[in-house]
C-alpha cells in the first residue's frame, strides 16, 4: 500500500513589513510631576535614564484598547482591510490576569476574522519575538498577512513610591503588518534567553516591577550588541548596510552604548538611532514599533531603509531582527 501524501502550504519567496501604527497614553507626565510623588528630580532622570517626559494612559486606555487603536492604524497604513489579516499576535507582559488573552479581543474589535490570535510574553523582547514568529508563519504559508502588536499598560504594575522604577515605565502600543514578498525584506529572527538571570527583573510581592538596575544595565550594555550583530549576519548583510538602529527603549544610555559598540564594529557614523524614550518612556514590548512609527511620521527614516530591531528585558530574554522600512 502506498503511503498517503501529506500536502503542505504553498510558500511565498519572502516576507516584508507592510505598515505601522501606534498610540500612547493620553496623559503626559513630566519628571517634575514625578518629583511630587517620590524623592527624585528632573536632572537625575534626564542624566541617568534620558527621559524628559513619558505618557501614561487615562482610565479608558487598556492593553486591549491601545492594541486595537495601533493595530487598526497599521492595517490601514499597509493599505489592507481587516479581512486581509489572518493572524493576530499581541506581545504584552502587562495583560491583567492573563486569561483571557489580549489577541482574541483585539482581533474581534478590529473586525478581523483571524484564523489564529494569540499573545506572546517575552517582556521587552516581545515585539521582535512576535515579529519573528509572524514572518516565519507567512514564509511557511500558514498565514498570508499577520498583524503584530506590542501593547503595555504599566501604571498598575508600578510601586509609585519606588523611585528606581516608577520613573522609567510608560503606557502605549505599536503595531506592524507582515505580509508576503517576492524579494525577502525581513531577515531571520535571532532569539534567546538567559533564564539564569531571572531574579534581576521580577514582580515584587507579585505586584510591582522590580529590577536590579545595575545588573540589567551591565548585561544590556555588554551582551546585546553581539546579538544585534548576529541578526545582521543572519540576514546576509554587513553592519555597514544598516541605516536605522531601533533598540528597545529601556534607557537612553543603553541605546547609546549599543549604537557605539556596533559603530566600533563597522556600523556607519550616520546610523540613525531611535531615541524615542526621551518623550515616550519605556513602553516595553511597544517601544520598538512605537519608535519606528514616530520616526516614519517625523520623516527621520524612509521607505527602503534597512532597520535593525533589538529587544531585551525580563526573562531575561533578547531578540534581534533586520527588516526593511515599508
Ligand atoms: C534603573 C536605572 C535607571 C538606575 O540607574 P543607575 O544609574 O543604575 O542608578 P542606581 O540604581 O545605581 O542608583 C544610583 C543612586 O541614585 C539613586 N536613585 C535611584 N533612582 C533615583 C531617582 N529616580 N531619582 C534620584 N535618585 C535615584 C539611588 O538610590 C542611588 O543612590 P545612592 O548612591 O545614594 O544609593 C538603570 O540602572 C537602568 O536603566 N538599568 C537597566 C534597565 C533595563 O534595561 N531594564 C530592562 C529592560 S526594561
Automatic annotation (TrEMBL):
EC number: 2.3.1.180
Gene Ontology molecular function: any one: 3-oxoacyl-[acyl-carrier-protein] synthase activity
Any one of the GO CC terms: cytoplasm
Domain of life: Bacteria
Domain (Beta-ketoacyl-[acyl-carrier-protein] synthase III N-terminal) ranges: 118-194
Active-site residues, record numbering mapped to chain: 124, 248, 282
One Pfam assignment: ACP_syn_III
ACP-binding: region residues: 249-253
Keyword Lipid metabolism: yes
Keywords in alphabetical order: Acyltransferase, Cytoplasm, Fatty acid biosynthesis, Fatty acid metabolism, Lipid biosynthesis, Lipid metabolism, Multifunctional enzyme, Transferase
Catalyses which reaction(s): malonyl-[ACP] + acetyl-CoA + H(+) = 3-oxobutanoyl-[ACP] + CO2 + CoA
Gene Ontology process terms (BP): fatty acid biosynthetic process; secondary metabolite biosynthetic process
Domain Beta-ketoacyl-[acyl-carrier-protein] synthase III C-terminal, first and last residues per copy: 233-322
Assembly and interaction partners: Homodimer.
Domain notes: The last Arg residue of the ACP-binding site is essential for the weak association between ACP/AcpP and FabH.
UniProt family annotation: Belongs to the thiolase-like superfamily. FabH family.
Protein name (Swiss-Prot/TrEMBL): Beta-ketoacyl-[acyl-carrier-protein] synthase III
Native organism: Saccharopolyspora kobensis
Top-level taxonomy: Bacteria, Bacillati, Actinomycetota, Actinomycetes, Pseudonocardiales
Gene that encodes the chain: fabH
